[in-house]
Design a protein that fits this description.
This is Inactive receptor kinase. By secondary structure, the protein is α/β, with parallel strands linked by helices. The protein has 11 helices and 24 strands. The strands form 5 sheets. It has a 7-stranded antiparallel β-sheet. The two termini are 35 Å apart.
Amino acid sequence: MPQHNHHHHQDLSSLLAFKASADPLGSALPTWSGPNPCSGPWLGLKCDQFDRVTNINLDGSSLTGPIAPLLQLKHLKLLSLQRNSLSGRLPPLSNLSNPSLRILSLSHNVLDGPINVSLPNLLVLRLDRNRFSGGLDSVRLDRVLDFNVSENRLSGAILGRLTGFPPSSFFGNLALCGSPLPSCLSSSVNDSASTSTTCIKTLAKLGVTSVLYIVAIDAMVITLVLAVILVVYACVKRRMKRKAMSRYSMMSKNRSEERDQEVGGGLTAFEGGENLRIDCLLKASAEVLGKGTMGITYKAIIDEGGLAVAVKRLTTSRYSNGKAFDRCVRLIGRVRHEHIVSLRACYRNDGERLLVYDYMPNGSLQTLLHNNGYAMDWMRRKEILMGVAEGLEHIHANPSREPHVHGNIKPSNILIDGQGNARVSDWGLTLIAHNGFDDGERELARVQGAGARERAEEGDEGDGCVVTEKAAGGMGREAEAMAMVKIGMMCTKEAAGERPTMRQVVGMMSEVLEFAGEAA
């Protein structure tokens, strides 16, 4: 039997089992008949190109009974059964049972029992106005954007990422507590008092010699454990030192083998800039494009062929000298991506520092948003959002010994190329800024430190600000725009460890746009 026929048979069996219990009289789902749910007039279904059911939307269809049969559909992405009379328990959901599920909306039913949902990729979970009971400790939702369990019979503490949702997501559960609801009453004081009393009674039953013997054994055990820890620490430290020395020698060897070309006269060319000559660059006609804290940017026309490039003349007082500067510029010059402005060459001589980039003819996002007198439509905003997110994800995920970060993401540093694509510019310039970066390492440590982590492991606060500003244009479908704003807000959380990585951001944005397209 062909694979798609096998999936088709499984889906059909699950759908008919649900119909038998949810619509025993055949009045709610009269079109659910026939051998193939993906080719007939089956109400509320959508399928993929392999005839597998992916979307079910049966809101307000007067359905009854359990929903378990529908959750046996392995390729189901969206299940919306709001405002029905469905009953019974919600079966445990995990990546093993429901790997594709992204949206689960079961509001306004009479479902009961515990909520056991562990779906890291789920984006929407709406279970409000049911009869669910128990706690939320079995709810694991790493990427959820829309969460509501209000007006149920839940109890216990709200934990983890769920504390980031508003109180309205939990209202109507009188026994729920913890942020964002009032704090839970702690019984730790009573527990401590009880424990202390028990310990005193136990000690009273022991003789003095026994107590001293126990204390001596405990002291020996603690001393032995400390000795083992010190030995392990010394071994690890010695191994790390050897690895660091090996890494340094490897880096030195790799640098000598780099393809970056010293063209001469202080000019270092990267991929695509091999034909640049410093004499032509310095003689080129220039037009000021903008001024900032990092320096002044010019549009320069190279004589040969009228090639246009963007030249950033760095403010020399802000940047370190020598090897640290060269190392960071080489790091920047090697990155290539369709949504990143490419650095083609660098000139450093006699205090002059020039960075030569591809010229972007359509200005910046800042201009598009605020200065040109027209409002971008929602489709255009989405394209720019995705382009910026993919560019930043590439910067963060680029395999390298060095940490890759942007350090100064904002609308004026997002440029638009000749094809209308968004490109991230000026990335990495904060790494070579003079403030606290004389040895070429201090600023790298600061940027990836606990106070200002922008790397992929911890997420990016600045990226979220750009996402929020662009999505807040108020155009297009409200739900889609609000989902984008929520992603942006996730990226601006104060604690770096609570922010999603750029890889996760790109994934969430892609899925939001995919589901919005399917619902259109």
